[in-house]
Amino acid sequence: MNSANTDRKYIFGAIVIVVVLIFAARLFYIQIIDESYKVTADNQAFRYVTDYPARGNIFDRNGKRLVYNQAAFDLMIIPRQVKPFDTLALCKLLEIEKEDLIKRLQKARKESVYKPSIFEKELSVETAGHIQEQLYLYTGFYMQSRTLRKYPMSIAAHLLGYVGEAPPELVDTSSYYRMGDYIGISGIEKSYEKDLRGVRGTKIIMVDVHNREKGSYMNGTFDTAAIAGKDIYTTLDLDMQMYAEQLLKNKIGSIVAIEPQTGEILILASSPSYDPNLLVGSIRSKNYNVLLRDTLNPLFNRAMMASYPPGSTFKIAQALVAQQEGILNSESRLPCNFVVAGKSIHCHHHGSPNLSESIQKSCNPYYCRTFINIINKYKKTEEGYLIWKKHINSMGFGVKLGVDLPNELRGNVPSVEFYDRYHGKGRWKAASIYSLGIGQGEMGVTPLQMASYCSLLANKGYYIIPHIAKKIEGGDIDKKYKEKKYSSIEPKYFDVVYDAMYQVVEAGTGSGGKIPGIPFCGKTGTAQNPHGEDHSIFICFAPKDNPKIALAIYVENAGFGATWAVPMASLLIEKYLTGKITRTEMEKKMMEGVVMPKYVLIKKNPLAD
What is the Cα–Cα distance from 120 to 444, expressed in whole angstroms? Predict the structure, then answer.
């Protein structure tokens, strides 16, 4: 027994010695060899600074810069490190009130006493330099660099979008974003956020007891480098975008232009607009509230979010569906008068136009009758309507096209359920909704959809999803933006409407837009507006053969399509295809023209200064 007890003592002693040696070795390693432990242990002597990456630049299709970065600084605070300081002196330095300073201190402590947070954001280089000279007096405060967006041309605000702080609800759920990070809020900045933002890094800076930086720890051995965001080359044509916005000055409306063969957006203009530089930096919040209260609603992107009646431009879609359904052919003639639901539909005494003439002369009775005939081809109204609706949806109406920009609306092609609720199930007929035949009633389309529709007409049956990204640095755009989207209409039925649209410009309602030497195709529209003057509409593509540009223009409260939309489109086509304007009188009239609702008082923009 004694021998056994002695053996157990030796074994126990050996185990104790081994454990002690292991702990000693581990302590030696983490204190002497492993420098990362020293970084943690000496946390009070080090400052962990976020290295924000430069956000990617944005260019137009020709390499002209639309958005770049400019240097800025945030004044940061780590509450646990703050020591008593002269509050009045800091207030004077930052040009803030003492009550504001106290609130900011309380907010920082509430967020975290250990982690840094922003005390004063988005300081200019000059202001930050002045404050930096005094920071040795304020332990726990330090300056952190970041970049802000700069818009050299002050255009395309709705398309480019803006950047702001990541909202708390995103920070709470994201594995990447932290409080104080910036994120794309709208436009390209939002839809291509992951490409543009880059990847943040971290720098470990040594500081002395006076809060002065003494350099990088271990020459940056433990730093992680930021990775700059990717540059994006857009499909936008800067010169054409600027020209479109000039034409829309003092008007409410939108211009969208697309390259038909590629689906690339050349112009996306909405008016009224605003200078995107107004939503950059510390002035963003104040300016946003002013813009939000503006009765002209400059923040609203009419190109993608406004839903308008398509008006007479929709007659082309009806002509295509009617041919596909065997209701009409190129020689079909219908009388230029029609009585439906006890109402007489009049026109301009065209006699009995054929299909081409009905488009050229924009005959309302022809298309009210045609729409009803399409629906009544089938035994049940609902069946006929759903088949008609399927054709219309295939042209890009009543659906989201899938553009690579946020907040796209689908417009409205009413559902069967809608009419069941409105008229009563089984109680409505084609004659109840005949106004859809001429693009009125409950129909709603966006200018973007209209431009895509015009591209489909130019391509005789297909469109490519409109998109704004042409090339992403080190990558490629989504393959869906290269695929053809075919409508349900056979290509052979496009020939007659193609020629009819040419006659609209040559000898019809769009003849005021003729360009010497450039034949093109178009269709005017006048959309009824229950709130005031009708809207002026024009869609077109040019040149007639091998089209290079498809356009949709809406000018609100401007009356007939031929009055404003046609000449504006004509000028844009001439500039895009020739690089110059020869009809200077027309240009002057369009540029200087003021088209505003009567209830709108035109006054100086409070942000103009």
Answer: 46
In terms of pLDDT, which residue wins out, 417 or 535? 417
CA nearest neighbour of 542 among 457, 481, 466, 462: 457
For 404, which DSSP code?
A: S
Using the structure block, give the residue that is written with the tokens 């543009």. 196
- Cα–Cα distance between 47 and 98 in angstroms, integer? 27
The tokens of 243 are what? 């020209």
Distances (CA, A) of 290 to 2, 278, 294, 605, 609: 93, 10, 6, 10, 13
Residue that wins the pLDDT comparison between 272 and 601: 272
Tens-place pLDDT, residues 261-274: 999 999 999 999 99
The one-letter code for the residue type at 55 is R
d(CA 491, CA 265): 24
Interatomic CA distance for residues 567 and 558, integer angstroms: 13
Question: Does domain 46-233 correspond to CATH entry 3.40.1390.20?
Answer: no
In terms of Cα–Cα distance, which of 334, 310, 341 is closest to 536?
Answer: 310
What is the DSSP pairing of strand 264-271 with strand 253-259?
antiparallel
Structure tokens at 237: 């044509």
Q: Is the bond preceding residue 447 a cis peptide, omega within 30 degrees?
A: no
Return d(Cα 235, Cα 177) in angstroms, integer.
29
What's the mean pLDDT when you consider all of the chain? 89
Tell me if residue 429 falls in helix, strand or coil: coil
**Percent over 70 (pLDDT), the chain:** 90
Could you tell me the CA-to-CA distances from 492 to 27, 171, 323, 478, 543 in Å, in that order? 83, 54, 10, 31, 20
Strand ordering across the sheet containing 46-51: 46-51, 201-207, 213-216
Q: 450, 313 in Cβ contact below 8 A? A: yes
Q: Three-state DSSP class for 462?
A: strand
Q: Which amino acid is at 335?
A: P
Q: What is the pLDDT of residue 192?
A: 97
Task: Return the bridge partners of 73, or none.
Answer: 123, 145
**Residue 352 vs residues 39, 356, 597: alpha-carbon distances, Å:** 89, 11, 37
Q: Which residues are bridge partners to 234 per DSSP?
A: 469
Count of C-beta atoms within a 10 Å radius of residue 129: 12
Instruction: Please list the residues that pair with 542 across neighbouring strands.
Output: 549
Residue 144's pLDDT is 86
- According to DSSP, residue 562 is labeled T
Rg (CA), the chain: 33
Closest-CA residue to 478 (of 227, 196, 228, 192): 192
pTM above 0.70, yes or no: yes
Q: Which fold has domain 238-274+299-592?
A: Beta-lactamase (3.40.710)
Q: How far apart are the C-alpha atoms of 291 and 279, rounded to whole Å?
A: 10
Domain boundaries, given as residue ranges, for the chain: 46-233, 238-274+299-592
pLDDT tens digits, 23-43? 667 666 655 555 554 544 444
CA 588 distance to own-chain centroid: 30
